[in-house]
């Protein structure tokens, strides 16, 4: 498609999704830059267009419609000072808690800050008044673009009706041509799914909500439970166990969900390795996913769900829209505990066959990983397995970003109930990891805390080690020392050998024994897998913080991971 055709497709699809989501009225002030959306609104049979010459009047007219109907009304204008005329009504909508969807067309990026006509800064034009602001950027023709357009429209309407209703501002830049060719009426990109279903249950889930989800689970032949990061996930354990006695569903829980437990019902520890086998993944596609908490860490799991796109129900009490791949057809914002407890009573006991298929495959994968690790030189997988074996309970594991958190997800078997997993997965940066881990250790001084970090992460927050001595914080700091950023070996940049080492892996050449001496830490270096248990045991019993350095090359790490995945594939055959 040409750029103009993409713009027209966006406008038609965006407006169609607004209409599917319940929008019935839009107030339009005439203008050029807003032409794609104005035409799409005018041609949609489900939306009534109210034209106003004056933007200020249009905005207050829309406000009155929304107040009287207690339902969102859209408001559209061109770029420049036209958008500023909406401001008084936006303020009133904010303070009177009136749902209003404000759509401001805008110049494309290349016409901003260069003296172009009718180009003003429209970013957050209305300050703190909107409940949500988003600059959508220019429409593109990527395969997933129509799904993004529809989700933007659906979310915008939901946000106007949040816990505190009010205005939402979407800034929508367009390039010329702004109108289709004469005689051509652009069509919305069709969709084969129902409109986004959103439910907010601030206290107890309603009977309607419980029945809806229970019905979906009962009708599914291959349901799947996916649990991402939840610091308080441990409180869901009993409710999930009760549910999984009736629901024939595997549970794919990453360690930071606090739900990957030894003997936990339905728990599949090796899902990352299983889903790296394309043939096995293709044969085990779910028809429904019930997701709890943050998006999964595992790339293999995310790609699996994105590729096959099963119907997904997201239960996330934290707010926000933690659905980066736009997979959720239904989003439930509520405390998952009472919902899970009530679901169990609505379901008949299943035969457990689907759950056992996944668990048997996981057991096969675990055995294959153990055999391959026994035969392989030291790499991250050995360290994670040794930690899982030696760590007492209760204890805390703080996993660093980049490879560390992914290796915990890949290699940690079912954890003891008293082991808690923490990580900085909000922004997923490598800065401040030492200090965050030591802060967690200080909060639970009576029990062991292990920091599992890469050498680059340690270096990035090396000053944080000062707190261990200054405040008497005791922790075990296990460093995966592969001399640089090993995660880049798994990314496309690795194919550019002429610049790869200098720009990406950035080898440190850091002597960690000198770091330990500087900060008065005990030190132990390990280069053989067989030495890990003793080193970890001593570190866990030490009277002050210990730095355990597991040394291996990046080549060793990459080859070790690939060998483990190949071993699982071979075992599954």
Automatic annotation (TrEMBL):
<keyword id="KW-0474">Menaquinone biosynthesis</keyword>
<dbReference type="InterPro" id="IPR012001">
    <property type="entry name" value="Thiamin_PyroP_enz_TPP-bd_dom"/>
</dbReference>
<dbReference type="InterPro" id="IPR029035">
    <property type="entry name" value="DHS-like_NAD/FAD-binding_dom"/>
</dbReference>
<dbReference type="InterPro" id="IPR011766">
    <property type="entry name" value="TPP_enzyme_TPP-bd"/>
</dbReference>
<feature type="domain" description="Thiamine pyrophosphate enzyme N-terminal TPP-binding">
    <location>
        <begin position="11"/>
        <end position="124"/>
    </location>
</feature>
<comment type="pathway">
    <text>Quinol/quinone metabolism; 1,4-dihydroxy-2-naphthoate biosynthesis; 1,4-dihydroxy-2-naphthoate from chorismate: step 2/7.</text>
</comment>
<keyword id="KW-0460">Magnesium</keyword>
<keyword id="KW-0808">Transferase</keyword>
<comment type="function">
    <text>Catalyzes the thiamine diphosphate-dependent decarboxylation of 2-oxoglutarate and the subsequent addition of the resulting succinic semialdehyde-thiamine pyrophosphate anion to isochorismate to yield 2-succinyl-5-enolpyruvyl-6-hydroxy-3-cyclohexene-1-carboxylate (SEPHCHC).</text>
</comment>
<dbReference type="InterPro" id="IPR004433">
    <property type="entry name" value="MenaQ_synth_MenD"/>
</dbReference>
<dbReference type="Pfam" id="PF02775">
    <property type="entry name" value="TPP_enzyme_C"/>
</dbReference>
<dbReference type="GO" id="GO:0030145">
    <property type="term" value="F:manganese ion binding"/>
</dbReference>
<comment type="subunit">
    <text>Homodimer.</text>
</comment>
<dbReference type="InterPro" id="IPR029061">
    <property type="entry name" value="THDP-binding"/>
</dbReference>
<keyword id="KW-0786">Thiamine pyrophosphate</keyword>
<dbReference type="GO" id="GO:0009234">
    <property type="term" value="P:menaquinone biosynthetic process"/>
</dbReference>
<comment type="similarity">
    <text>Belongs to the TPP enzyme family. MenD subfamily.</text>
</comment>
<dbReference type="GO" id="GO:0000287">
    <property type="term" value="F:magnesium ion binding"/>
</dbReference>
<keyword id="KW-0464">Manganese</keyword>
<dbReference type="GO" id="GO:0070204">
    <property type="term" value="F:2-succinyl-5-enolpyruvyl-6-hydroxy-3-cyclohexene-1-carboxylic-acid synthase activity"/>
</dbReference>
<comment type="pathway">
    <text>Quinol/quinone metabolism; menaquinone biosynthesis.</text>
</comment>
<dbReference type="Pfam" id="PF02776">
    <property type="entry name" value="TPP_enzyme_N"/>
</dbReference>
<feature type="domain" description="Thiamine pyrophosphate enzyme TPP-binding">
    <location>
        <begin position="429"/>
        <end position="548"/>
    </location>
</feature>
<dbReference type="GO" id="GO:0030976">
    <property type="term" value="F:thiamine pyrophosphate binding"/>
</dbReference>
<protein>
    <recommendedName>
        <fullName>2-succinyl-5-enolpyruvyl-6-hydroxy-3-cyclohexene-1-carboxylate synthase</fullName>
        <ecNumber>2.2.1.9</ecNumber>
    </recommendedName>
</protein>
<keyword id="KW-0479">Metal-binding</keyword>
